[in-house]
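Researcher: Re-running this chain for the archive, since the previous output was lost when a drive failed. Same request as before.
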Amino acid sequence: MGYVSAKGVWVGRGGGGGRFFVRNLANPAPPQPSSHTHCCQQSGERWLPMLILGALMFLPGSYHSYIAYKAWKQEPGWSFDDIPDFDN
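Model: Regenerated structure tokens:
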């Protein structure tokens, strides 16, 4: 795990590979800018339209998959002909 030294410095094992790191608890280093900050800010603005589009795509797909499953199991009243063709 880690420990706090007499000077208030935390010494502990890092994430992977057994590397150790030292962090001064009294004067922490400023956070480094993240390279993905811009994309995360944009994705926060478009979650609702993506949720709506995802639902609109999921519902018909799951319905047609259900028809195909019932036809594959050869249950009476279900046929692959029940799946509509979307060709004009």
